[in-house]
């Protein structure tokens, strides 16, 4: 019992950098968000204008990856903060964990992740953490370990009323729901890159539809993330550029929301970048974010 | 000491992050005119050798241990060395904290303390610049400046102090930090040159990440024909061209490697012209590098005869030994691909494999090159000589052997086992067990036989399994009985083998296993060799079938069909015929279609006078896993944003449902038929 009390005390001590008082009732704050996936947080004027114009209220920012090292999971490619976000935009620390980290349990990993995120916020004067998102392409093999890991994080965050979310890839919709406050349905990277001549590997509605049957009964609040990025190659002088046409994104959005209307209330685009912003008309972004 | 290098520039490297990376198998780069680890290894080795000498260590490879070094210095009453190591230790701790991605992210106080430590170490080192250990202390000053971000101070320090030190590894390291400082203060051109001279390729990549092109190489050449940066830029260009070609041919997975820049055909042609110009002008000391670059680009972009004549010229050209070795690798690839069949090819391959095999012990590049040559050239050239092909795959250890052995005709695998387990001297051309082999393959066979290390349990299991795939149960048993049960306990499919049964009708009950069971830590101990048990059963069931009366024979056909269905690659007992299961699997070559066999047996059973068996057999024939295609096609419908299911009355599964339907119109349908959702859907959508 004494150990138990001590453990709780240590957890509380660890999380002093995290904020108290936020609602964590398993609901999603409605609004428009973006992912930020570079290794240095630095926004140019186009990106700042985008945040303003589209009333972005949250930036899901990749803080670091967790990869398997010789001595178990290790942080990697930690972001540096050369810049800050506008004060009215929330920053959601996001951590990408490679699937092989979840092939076996790693005691203490959840605590390490939360503690590191909180310390990053404190050292860089980013304010208290109110929410964390974990991104992992978990499979049937790694699901149990991953869910236990999420439970560990969720428990610690719940003490200080911080929210926890996770990304959910389409193939993961058939699995039991993860123990988080909400999920972000990742509606991109749906195809096989090796078969790019047949279907757009970033997004093709034919690859999305087979999974939609799981949506209505998926017992977890969900947000939806759509791709606005491009992928380019030049082979024998021929430029092959994969982008997703605005109409294709909107067609998928319609199909997805027809199965689960709440998905129109919380929308994220992947990812914030000047080139991605300039690729589409402002009206396209308005339509993607349209409630 | 490797801490030193990566801290200088890589900390500033900005790379777009990608959550998904695809790894490749055979698209190893073949243009590698220098050892990419050169600078780092040189510095590390020299520093460690210096410490070994000081400590009197006899270890083959010594890794610096500050505490041990301090103890030795104290024993020698070397007070200056003691304080140097103590301060070096403080610096290294700060460096580690900054460089390494640790779970403990630093607090503000820790950052302030780190700065104070570095300032204190620098102040100390500055007082020792005329001591016996002046070079080490000067390096310590520059290291502290680097971590403190005081790059201008380092530029000045190099000119006033560092450059005046005697030649040593410490001076080299100072020079490297100076280059980093130049890069950070706007003198990138000079910095790049220093990095290239030193072989600090990691820093060069950081510098040139966004400035890599034919134009950049041309301009650099025009400025200085033997600029040390050129070999780095040329290597990067040629390898990026290879990457583009590999991606086009689906050799490499797209989007895979870091630092890739796509090269167009037009740009590659320009580069070939430049290479030609460089060789012709004679202003370079390393023409072999430019000539082999041209040869490889010509080959990659389809001008293969031109590549043959270009690469032949490299034999007599000047360059470093590493460049000449690289040229030989490319000669091996290009010539082996273009040479005619016969003794000349065999002898050439034997001599080059022997040379490359030795080189693989030196450096990873040669191992990678061997894998690519084997996969892309030798496997094609020896495709008609299956035994030698397997032997090449084994000798080069490039991972193709397992697939090759699994798909080869069983008689060739048996021949291979003989080939691999008999001495080279007995393999004369006339007794060589391969068809269509050159009549003079001695040198190649001698090399290959000396490099075979067959795992006999695996081989015996595979030959037995291949006979099982052909339904040759007696032959299978002869080989499988040689395999110990322990071999099967270690296989990844052991939980399936332990928990699944081939006696269960798959069309009535599937044998799903929970993830916890399959991926758990439990170790499985099988009660017997599952393949021997299965083959024995099948031999008995088939050999006695002809003795049965008609009714019993129908039941026997049904029983056999169950087992064939279970042992098929889509059955629950797939592990009997395969080591793994994939949704993309198909019936392989040299393998009986067990699904089709089960269907044929079920057709016999369906002729039974026993109405229960008849209905069961008709129902079983509707089981989707036995048919090559489903009873419907899926067509995308843009209007409904979904697939439409279009019944395909020509498909065998559709016809099986039709036969079942006709039957249950005359006879009461069993529960398993009336409750079958697939059958209900067929009835709803049938034409």
Radius of gyration of chain A: 19 Å
- Record field, number of beta strands of chain B: 2
Global geometry of chain A:
globular
Strands of the widest sheet of chain B, in order across it, are 1-2
Describe this protein's structure:
The complex is a heterodimer of chains A (291) and B (687). Helix content of chain A is 31%, strand content 26%. Chain A has helices spanning 2-14, 45-53, 109-123, 143-159, 205-212, 246-259, 274-279, 282-289; strands spanning 31-36, 40-41, 56-69, 72-76, 80-81, 90-97, 131-135, 163-169, 182-186, 222-227, 231-235, 238-242, 266-270. Chain A has an 8-stranded parallel β-barrel with strand order 1-3-6-7-8-9-10-13. In chain A, strands 2-5 form a two-stranded parallel ribbon. In chain A, a hairpin with a 2-residue loop joins strand 11 (231-235) and strand 12. In chain A, helix 3 (109-123) crosses helix 4 (143-159) and helix 5 packs parallel to helix 6. The relative contact order of chain A is 0.15. The radius of gyration of chain B is 34 Å and the shape is elongated. In chain B, helix 7 (151-160) crosses helix 8. Chain B is 61% helix and 2% strand. Chain B has 34 helices and 2 strands.
Comma- or semicolon-separated keywords:
A: 291 residues; alpha/beta; eight-stranded parallel β-barrel; two-stranded parallel sheet; 8 helices; B: 687 residues; mainly alpha; disordered N terminus
């Amino acid at each position: 019992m004494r150990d138990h009390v001590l453990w709780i005390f240590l957890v509380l001590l660890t999380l002093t950098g995290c904020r108290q008082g936020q609602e964590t009732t398993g609901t999603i704050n409605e609004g428009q968000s973006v992912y930020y996936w570079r290794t240095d947080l630095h926004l140019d004027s186009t990106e700042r204008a985008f945040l303003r114009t589209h009333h972005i209220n949250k930036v899901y920012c990749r803080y670091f990856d967790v990869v398997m090292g010789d001595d178990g999971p290790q942080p990697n490619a930690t972001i540096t903060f050369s810049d800050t976000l506008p004060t009215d935009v929330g920053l959601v620390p996001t951590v990408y964990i490679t699937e092989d980290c979840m092939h076996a349990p790693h005691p203490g990993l959840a605590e390490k992740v939360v503690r590191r995120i909180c310390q990053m916020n404190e050292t860089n004067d980013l304010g208290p953490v109110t929410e964390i998102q974990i991104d992992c392409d978990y499979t049937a093999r790694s699901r149990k370990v991953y869910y236990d890991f999420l439970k560990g994080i969720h428990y610690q965050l719940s003490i200080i009323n911080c929210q926890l979310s996770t990304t959910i890839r389409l193939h993961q919709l058939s699995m039991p729901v993860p123990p988080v406050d909400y999920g972000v349905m990742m509606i991109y990277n749906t195809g096989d890159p090796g078969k790019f001549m047949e279907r757009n590997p970033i997004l093709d509605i034919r690859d999305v539809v087979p999974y939609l049957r799981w949506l209505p009964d998926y017992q977890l609040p969900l947000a939806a993330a759509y791709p606005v990025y491009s992928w380019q190659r030049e082979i024998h002088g021929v430029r092959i550029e994969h982008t997703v046409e605005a109409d294709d994104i909107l067609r998928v959005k319609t199909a997805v929301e027809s199965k689960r209307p709440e998905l129109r209330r919380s929308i994220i685009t992947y990812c914030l970048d000047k080139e991605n912003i300039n690729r589409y008309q402002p009206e396209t972004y308005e339509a993607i974010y349209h409630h | 000491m490797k801490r030193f290098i990566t801290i200088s520039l890589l900390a500033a490297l900005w790379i777009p992050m990608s959550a998904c990376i695809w790894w490749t198998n055979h698209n190893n780069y073949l243009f590698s005119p220098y050892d990419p680890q050169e600078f780092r290894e040189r510095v590390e080795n020299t520093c460690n050798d210096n410490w070994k000498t000081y400590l009197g260590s006899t270890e083959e490879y010594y890794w610096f241990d500050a505490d041990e070094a301090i103890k030795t210095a104290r024993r020698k009453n070397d007070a200056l060395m003691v304080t140097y190591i103590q301060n070096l230790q403080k610096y290294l701790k700060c460096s580690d904290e900054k460089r390494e991605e640790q779970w403990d992210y630093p607090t503000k106080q820790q950052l302030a303390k780190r700065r104070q430590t570095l300032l204190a170490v620098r102040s100390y080192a500055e007082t020792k610049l005329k001591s016996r250990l002046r070079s080490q202390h000067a390096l310590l000053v520059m290291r502290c400046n680097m971590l403190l971000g005081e790059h201008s101070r380092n530029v000045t320090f190099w000119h006033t102090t560092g450059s005046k030190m005697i030649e040593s590894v410490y001076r080299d390291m100072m020079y490297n930090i100076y280059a980093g400082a130049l890069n950070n203060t706007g003198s990138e051109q000079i910095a790049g040159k220093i990095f290239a001279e030193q072989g600090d390729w990691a820093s060069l990549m950081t510098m040139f990440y966004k400035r890599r092109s034919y134009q950049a190489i041309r301009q650099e050449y025009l400025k200085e024909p033997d600029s040390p940066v050129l070999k780095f830029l040329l290597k990067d260009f040629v390898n990026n061209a290879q990457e583009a070609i590999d991606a086009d041919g689906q050799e490499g997975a797209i989007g895979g490697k870091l630092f890739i820049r796509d090269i167009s055909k037009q740009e590659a042609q320009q580069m070939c012209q430049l290479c030609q110009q460089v060789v012709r002008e004679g202003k370079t000391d390393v023409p072999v590098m430019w000539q082999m670059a041209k040869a490889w680009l010509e080959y990659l972009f389809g001008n293969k005869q031109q590549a043959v004549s270009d690469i032949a010229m490299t034999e007599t050209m000047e360059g470093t030994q590493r460049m000449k070795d690289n040229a030989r690798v490319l000669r091996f690839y290009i010539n082996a691909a273009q040479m005619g069949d016969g003794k000349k090819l065999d002898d050439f391959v034997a001599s080059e494999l022997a040379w490359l095999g030795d080189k693989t012990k030196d450096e990873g590049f040669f191992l990678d090159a061997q894998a690519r040559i084997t996969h892309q050239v030798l496997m094609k050239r020896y495709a008609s000589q299956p035994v030698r092909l397997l032997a090449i795959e084994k000798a080069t250890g490039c991972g193709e052997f397992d697939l090759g052995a699994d798909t080869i005709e069983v008689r060739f695998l048996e021949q291979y086992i003989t080939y691999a387990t008999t001495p080279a001297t007995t393999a004369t051309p006339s007794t060589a067990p391969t068809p269509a082999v050159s009549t003079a393959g001695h040198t190649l066979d001698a090399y290959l036989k000396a490099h075979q290390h067959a795992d006999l349990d695996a081989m015996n299991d595979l030959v037995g399994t291949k006979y099982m795939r052909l339904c040759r149960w007696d032959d299978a048993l002869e080989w499988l009985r040689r395999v110990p049960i322990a071999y099967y306990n270690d296989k990844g499919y052991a939980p399936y083998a332990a928990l699944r049964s081939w006696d269960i009708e798959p069309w009535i009950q599937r044998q799903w296993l929970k993830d916890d069971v399959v991926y758990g830590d439990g170790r499985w101990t099988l009660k017997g060799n599952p393949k021997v048990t299965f083959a024995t059963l099948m031999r008995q069931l088939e050999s006695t079938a002809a003795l049965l009366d008609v009714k019993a024979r129908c039941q026997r056909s049904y029983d056999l069909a169950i087992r064939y269905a279970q042992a098929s690659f889509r059955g629950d007992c797939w592990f009997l015929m395969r080591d793994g299961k994939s949704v993309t699997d198909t019936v392989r070559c040299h393998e009986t279609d067990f699904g089709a066999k089960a269907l044929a047996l079920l057709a016999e059973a369906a002729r039974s006078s026993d109405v229960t068996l008849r209905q069961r057999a008709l129902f079983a024939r509707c089981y989707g896993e036995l048919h090559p295609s489903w009873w419907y096609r899926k067509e995308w419908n843009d209007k409904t944003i979904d697939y439409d299911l279009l019944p395909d009355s020509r498909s065998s599964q559709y016809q099986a449902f039709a036969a079942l339907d006709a039957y249950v119109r005359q006879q009461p349908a069993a529960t398993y038929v009336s409750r079958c959702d697939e059958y209900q859907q067929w009835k709803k959508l049938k034409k």
